[in-house]
Amino acid sequence: MARLAVYGAISTLLAGAVIANAFAQRSNFYAACIYLYRSNACMMIILNLGLFLTIIAGQLVQIIFFGNLRTLEVEHLYERAWYAVTETCLAMTIFKDEFDTRFVVMFTVLLFLKVFHWLCMDRVDSMEQSPEIPLSFHVRMVTMIAMLVSLDVLLVYHAVNIVTLKGPNMMIMFGFEYTLLATSLMASFGKYVLHTIDMRTEDPWENKSMLLFYLDLVADFVKLVTYLLFFMVILVCYGLPLHIIRDVYMTMRSFLQKCKDLIQYRKATRNMNERYPDASPAELAALSDPICIICREEMVGHHSNAPAGQNAAGTTAPAPAAAGAQQQARPASNTRPTGSSTNVPKKLPCGHIFHFHCLKSWLERQQSCPTW
Ligand SMILES: [Zn+2]
Ligand SMILES: [Zn+2]
Fold this sequence. Notes:
Blueprint: H1 2-25, H2 29-38, H3 40-65, H4 71-92, H5 101-126, H6 135-166, H7 171-200, H8 208-238, H9 242-270, H10 272-275, H11 281-286, E1 291-292, E2 297-298, H12 308-311, H13 320-333, E3 345-347, E4 353-355, H14 356-365
Antiparallel strand pairs: 1-2, 3-4
Residues 348, 350, 352, 369, 371 line the site of one zinc ion.
């Protein structure tokens, strides 16, 4: 904070001095502006002040819309910012002839906006972990997302306008960047809506994770199409864009992976109830602590659904005798409706045990055992 204050003071003093000097040397406002614009050193100093003001504005927006950032969010920001900068350095190899102040300004604006996109996405993702969401969160989130998406759309429109007017230039890249940002943010907004609906309803929402998955799939598809389009445009106007090949490949791979996951998930969950046996109370008792590592809640052997005759007395602690009865009852219990069996402990072939619904939502994301 102190460093920022010093930097701000120096930037302001320098810019003030340069501007005062310009007005002292030139007779009128217009001439002074021309003088400032012509001098590279003056422009640098003024741009530097602009950078300082951008940082201050960014911190203000952060305080208003996001409050304090968590450590994880800060880490994500640095990671992503680093990636974005290297990415742009690579992109500059295509537009090297156009590298000038405008490019630097455009890039700063892009990075500035990206930061808030990332923060929004992280906040939406963290909704699942927070037990209670205050109203202020909804107000901030919806406002922020609406503002960012409108800005993205405006900037894409601006980029398209410039490119159609002046022919291909670096604005192609910015146009595509904003298209990608808008796509990701819209997907995040979709997630936000799903999480919000989920929080309003009492019962666990079985289909939510599936809807989230489809949302990601659609977003990935749009991104893939955008990247391919970008690739084609650059190929036609500038030659083979080496640095985008990686992005196109990564997006394509992610999309194909999701399609594959979807097919595998369909296979894995088609007859989950029959495929994975219920964990018997004895197996549960053998665990050092019977906690489902997916939801961190205790797993209790399922006795209420066993046929009443066999297990009438076994409704208390799972005694070994009751365990035997439970095991015999398993074939019958497999045929019960899935709705009542959502928290039955299920055993994977590797021996690990999880709640039925936890395992199901895990399989939606990954087809391997959660205990690596
Ligand atoms: Zn669980
Ligand atoms: Zn396992």
